[in-house]
Amino acid sequence: MFSAINCLLTRVRSFVFTVLAVGLFFSPVYFSIGNPWFPFNYYSAMVSLTVAAGLIILYQYDYEKIVFSAVPGAIPLGLLLLMFSIAWIISGTLIFFVDRYFVIICMLALYLSVSELYQKDVGLFLSMLRVKLAVIVGVAISFAVFVFLLQDPSLEGQVKRQPPIYQDLRHFNYDLYFALPVLVFLLKDNLRSLGLILFAFILCVTAVWTAGRGMMLALMASYTVVRLRLWNRPPQKLEIVCFFILICSLLLILVTGKTVFLYDTTLKTVASDSLNQLSSKRIDLWMASLDAYLQQDVLAQVFGMAPDAFARYGVWRAGSGQPHSSLVQFLIEFGAIGLILFIGLSVSLVKKSLYLIIYSESDTDLLAASLLVGGLVFGLVDGIFYHTAPMVMMVLVISFVILRYHSLTTGSSSRV
Q1: Most CB atoms within 10 A, among 36, 102, 113, 144?
Q2: CA dist 153 to 71, 97, 149, 252, Å?
Q3: Using an 8 Å Cβ cutoff, are 105 and 46 in contact?
Q4: Which residues fall within 8 angstroms of residue 290, CB to CB, at 6 or more apart?
C-alpha cells in the first residue's frame, strides 16, 4: 500500500514539475502577445520567481541549507549592490525602472532554486530542457503555418518588427538557439525517430527563415565546442543527418520564395560597405552608449548609471532599445567594475565548460557546456542578459555547469 502511495506521489510531483516548467518557458511567449517588451519581461520574471518558490515547496528543500549556502555569496553580493546604489545616488542617478531590479532579483532566486534542485536530482536538468523544447516546437509550428499561409510578400517583411508571437523575431531566435542543440542531443540516440526528425526539420526551417545572424553565430560556437571533444573523429552519422536537414530546410525556403529575411541577411553580410551596416547599425548603438558613458563623472564611469541606463540617457535614439551587447550593457549599467566582474565571471564559466568537455564523459555535460559557451557568444551581439526568457535559460545552464564542474573536481556522486 505504501509503495502505491509513493508511486502516486511521485507521479503527482512529476506532473506539478511539468506544469511549473511549462509556465516558466511558455509565459514569455504568452506575455509577448499584445504587450511591449518591458511588461512581458517583468511578467515573465514574476512567473520565474513563482516557479522558484514552487520548486522549493514541491521538492521540500532544506531551507536552512539553502539559507546557509546562500549567505557566503549573498553577503558580498549585497554589499556590492549597496555600494553601487550609494554611488548611483551620489552621482545623481535616479532609479528609472524599479521593475528591472526585480528581474535581476528573480533570476538570482531562480538560480538558488534550480541549483538545489539539481543537487536533489541532476536529471531534472534534462527534464527542464525537454519541456523547453516542446514549447518551442509548438511555437515554431505556429510560425511555420503562419508564414507559409502568408501569400503577400510585402506583409512578410513586416513580420520582423511585428510578428504574431514575440515582440521581435530576435526573441524567437533566442528560443531557437536553445531548442536546436537540445533536439540534436535527443536525436543522437533516436536517429530512426521520424517524429524527432520532423521536429528538427520544422525548427531548422524557421531558423533558416528568420536568418538571425546572432543565432547562427551562437550555434556555430556551440557546435565548435562539441567538435572539441570529437576533434580526432570523422563526421558522425548524427552530423550528416543534421547537415541534410539544414540543406533541405534551405531548399524549402528558396523554392517557396519565403526569402525576405534570408536575402536581407545575405545582402547585409556580403554587400555591406561598412562594419556598421554589417552589424545592423549596432556599431552606432554601441558608440552612442559609450558616448553617454564617457560624458558622466568618474563615479558614474566606475559604478555605472544603473540598470536600464540606455533608456535614461536616450541611447535608444541611435538605433533600437538596449545596447544588444552584454559587454556594453554591463559597462553603462554597472560601470568599469561591473564590466570587469562580468568578464571575470564569463572567463570562469568558459573554463568550467572546457573542463567538462575535456574530462567528462557525459553527453549531458557536453550539451550544457556548449549551450553556455554559445550563449555567452550570443550575448556579445544581442540581449541575452537583458530579456527574461534567455536569461532564464542561461541561469538553468550556468547552475548545471557549476554543479557538474564541482562534482567532477571534488569527486561527488551526482551523475547524469
Answers
A1: 113
A2: 56, 39, 11, 16
A3: no
A4: 328, 331, 332
Domain span holding position 247: 2-410
**H runs (alpha helix) in 295-387:** 298-303, 309-312, 326-359, 363-381
Read off the pLDDT of residues 297-311 as tens digits, 9 standing for 90 and up. Answer: 888 899 988 887 777
Whether residue 254 is contained in a domain is answered as yes
- Is residue 199 within 8 A of residue 249, CB to CB? The reply is no
User: What was the pLDDT predicted at 415?
Assistant: 56
The reported pLDDT for the residue numbered 321 is: 63
In a domain, 415, yes or no: no
Residues 87-119: tens digit of each pLDDT: 888 877 765 555 677 888 899 889 988 988 898
Neighbours of 57 (CB within 10 A): 9
Contact 217, 382 (CB under 8 A): no
Q: What angle do CA 60, 48, 335 make, to 5 degrees?
A: 120
> What is the pLDDT at residue 155?
63
pLDDT at 34 (0 to 100): 73
Residue 347 lies in a domain: yes
Residue pair 16/8 in contact by the 8 Å Cβ criterion: no
Q: Is residue 416 part of a domain?
A: no
Complete DSSP assignment for 283-321: HHHHHHHHHHHHTS-HHHHHH-S-TTHHHHTTGGGGSSS
- pTM of the predicted model as reported, rounded to 2 decimal places: 0.91
Based on C-alpha coordinates, what's the Rg of the chain? 22
* Residue 185 confidence (pLDDT): 93
pLDDT given at position 315: 64
- N-term to C-term CA, the chain: 31
Separation CA 399–CA 270 (nearest Å): 39
Q: Which residues of 289-299 are buried (b: 16+ CB within 10 A; e: fewer)?
A: beebbeebeeb
φ/ψ of 118, rounded to 5, equals -65, -35
Structure letter (DSSP) for residue 95: P
Q: 307-318 in b/e burial notation, b at 16+ Cβ within 10 A?
A: bbbbebbebeeb
Residues 6 or more apart whose Cβ sits within 8 Å of residue 89: none
What contacts 195, CB < 8 A, 6 or more positions away?
none
CA distance 248 to 219: 18
Domain count, the chain: 1
